[in-house]
# Entry
Amino acid sequence: MRVRRGDLTVSIIRPAIINTSYREPFLGWLDSIAAAAAYFMFVGLGIIKEIHEDPNRIGDTIPVDIVVANILVASAYNTKSNKLSVYNVGSSDRNPLIWKDVQQIIQDYWNSNISPNRLSKSKVRYTSNSFVIKASELSRKIPISIYSRLSPFLGSQHVKNAQKLIKAE
# Structure
């Protein structure tokens, strides 16, 4: 990179996991459902109910508008420079936020700003306990298995639905 850039000023911005906006253009704005934004949206809409993760681990996410501000500042700062600069944009060094707190912020926001697309109230359970994870898995698989075995007696549409459920697992 240093050789190929010649005299061109290059600034590399390395953000943590990019999430929804903090302020600009408005709180919670997202332009795609990728990375953390997808997680935040699916938790908020009540689609994700359980996460298999240690809730006390640091969730190093950074709002998209903070990343954009850093890009603009780095670009302006380095205009007169002829060097290669690398900037890491994150929050975990100075202001670490654990996943349990991230989830609480998401739930509070979505439960106070009701979306017409919401399936249910935003409530997520975190666990890293392997027994709880296995029990959760079984609580989904057992009803699907029973439905799958009964579906031939219920009709062709039920057979198709059961096949879709099994495929989705």
Remarks:
- The two ends are 44 Å apart (CA to CA).
- Helices lie at 35-44, 64-77, 99-112, 130-154, 156-168.
